[in-house]
Amino acid sequence: MATITVPQVVPSSAEDAAALMKAFQGWGTDEKAVIAILAHRNSFQRKEIMLEYEEMYNESLIQRLQSELSGDFERAMYHWILDPMERQAVMANAATKCIQEEYKIIVEIACVNSPAELVAIKKAYHVIYKCSLEEDVAARTRGNLRSLLLALVSTYRYDGDDVDMGLAKSEAKIVHEAVRNGTTDHEELIRVVGTRSKAQLKATFSCFRDEHGTSITKALPHGTDRTGYLHALRTALRCIVDGNKYFAKVLRTATRNSGTDEDTLTRVIVVHAEKDMKDISAAFQKRASCTLQEAIAKETSGDYKSFLMALLGS
Amino acid sequence: MQHLVGQASSNSSSAASASPVRLRPSPSSRRDQQHRERDAPAAAMADEHQELARAFSGMGGLGVDEAAVVSAVGRWRRQPEKRTQFRRSFPGFFTATSGGGGVMERCEDEYVRQLEAEFARFKDAAVLWAMHPWERDARWAHHVLHKAHPPAVLVEVACTRAADDLLGARRAYHALYHRSLEEDVAYRVRDASAALLVGLVSAYRYEGTRVSEELAKEEAKALAAAVKSASATGAKLVQNDLVVRVLATRSKPQLRATFRIYKELNGKTLEEDFAGELCLQEAVKCLDSPARYFGELINGAFKDGADKQAKAALTRVVVSRSEADMEEIKDAYAKQFGAKLTDAVAKNAHGHYKDALLAMIGK
């Protein structure tokens, strides 16, 4: 469930556009006004406002926002105002540019979205970047990491609930074999994780746990792997098994360690605020000593904090 | 089959071994021949039998000439001896049996099978024509995987369809089989071509025209290096990471630029340098020049000794491309084989099947 709140009676897009222009005028920007409008509109409404603004003032709203705002707030607002699929395409593209450090973003996008959403993201990628996400991912990686990332990004998983328990048992065995072998010979594991439906995979991991007493993520070898393959694999497994728990952990890490990781906060909150932020919040609270909103309030400040809090529904 | 098809010109007249049914002169047919010579329109009768045999068996072509069969049925009404003579003149199709009180000519099983296949061609074409293109492609892909047919059809579907049509076929596959196409390909294909096939069926290529000449040059050079290294070590290129990555992810315009530059740099085409690796050659052909590929498939159906797969390709290509690139296929066919596609089809197919194909090919 989403956490953003949209007013009962929404002003027309023309009214919103005019209000935004008013906020930009004069000395400095009225950030509170910008947040009061944009953080409380869904993607369809935001698109209407953008079109209306451009029509009325002959300039791009995105570019105006980029020049009026700054820092973490500007980055967050830029991503927020985009269409949800374009937003993830933009994030994916940024990740491919430094893929050895940021591959986990690709994994998240590939594994947490529904099959149809992933297709929409890839289509948006074509339009914006005039090439495919697959070719960018494949060209900048090698070996097991490439095989895994490319499989995750290319697949169009069956979306149904059909599960073949016999197959789940036999593939749990395959997964166990691969995990036991370190990181060599992972073709079969990548095949399973990269093509089976999510329901089938959950059944497979469940069989794995029943058979070996430990979850698949815990069973993965824990050594350092310079290629990033193991970490990518672990991320994929966690995203597939329980996306909310995964993001809750990501947020806990981003708010707990010395120095807050604003980029991560932005990425998770902006993408999920109109999707399933409520469930992620609930998962966060289970394992943390405070609510997500309390953690954000403590670790961020200024307009950036106000914006995130608005997205979280405060 | 020479003596049977005789004066009637036929595509398959040259190779008696081409037809799966071996046809030999039998004593009874020679006796019949003497009888026929005594009767007035003897030669005409023999001709009639031959024509009917041609029309009624798929010998010398594809499909059944329904009109000829109906005409014979009408002409020979209440003349069982005419039908007996017909059966006796084709000992390959009918075998004389005795015992049980009289001689009769029983139908050979092989003949029945052949007949069923030929009668079914029109039905298959019609059913496929009515289906949504995505469902057709999903069914063909499934057929390949579960009946162990050659992967060429998978390569064809994956590489010649537009990006959104391949995606649509994958969606249809979900609906029909409750699995994804790539999971079935990855699970069932266990030979060297697995990685390439999974990559090709999973592709969702950029469909715009933007091409980077610099990238094409870089990848052409890298491919040349891979080809050279493989010929030295004997490794299979179909399992080469670079080859699979480029063929499975780059857009088609980008690939065509790469193939062009490859030829400029190396003198040979990539297709030529993939000699001995059929799957790769098919992929390159389908990505680079699908019209030529389809023309060759169609021509393969007309050849003597064309097997079941080769003949089925005719229906598949005409039905699936009729509203896509049929004009380009007609041009490519004329260029390569020196004949109009419509003429070749008219010559090699019969009856409703022929008419349906011609209607789909257009003028």
Write the layout of secondary structure elements.
The complex is a heterodimer of chains A (314) and B (363).
Chain A: H1 13-24, H2 31-38, H3 43-57, H4 61-68, H5 71-81, H6 84-97, H7 99-112, H8 115-129, H9 133-139, H10 143-154, H11 165-180, H12 187-195, H13 198-212, H14 216-219, H15 229-241, H16 243-256, H17 262-272, H18 277-287, H19 292-299, H20 302-311
Helix pairs in contact in A: 1-2, 1-3, 2-20, 4-5, 5-17, 5-20, 6-7, 6-8, 7-15, 9-10, 10-12, 10-15, 11-12, 11-13, 15-16, 16-17, 16-18, 16-19
Chain B: H1 2-5, H2 27-38, H3 42-55, H4 66-75, H5 80-88, E1 94-97, E2 104-107, H6 109-130, H7 133-146, H8 152-160, H9 163-177, H10 181-188, H11 194-201, H12 213-233, H13 241-249, H14 252-266, H15 270-273, H16 278-288, H17 290-302, H18 308-321, H19 326-337, H20 341-348, H21 351-361
Antiparallel strand pairs in B: 1-2
Helix pairs in contact in B: 2-3, 6-18, 6-21, 7-9, 7-10, 8-16, 10-11, 11-13, 12-14, 16-17, 17-18, 17-19, 20-21
Description:
The complex is a heterodimer of chains A (about 325) and B (about 375). Chain A is mainly α and about 325 residues long. In chain A, about 70% of the residues lie in helices and about 0% in strands. Chain A has helices at about 15-25, 30-40, 45-55, 60-70, 70-80, 85-95, 100-110, 115-130, 135-140, 145-155, 165-180, 185-195, 200-210, 215-220, 230-240, 245-255, 260-270, 275-285, 290-300, 300-310. In chain A, helix 1 runs antiparallel to helix 2, helix 9 (about 135-140) runs antiparallel to helix 10 (about 145-155) and helix 10 packs parallel to helix 15. The longest helix of chain A is centred in the middle third of the chain and has 16 residues, at about 165-180. Chain A starts with 12 loop residues before the first helix and ends with a helix. Chain B is an all-alpha fold. A two-stranded antiparallel ribbon of chain B has the order 1-2. In chain B, strand 1 (about 95) and strand 2 form a beta hairpin. Residues about 1-30 of chain B have low confidence and may be disordered.
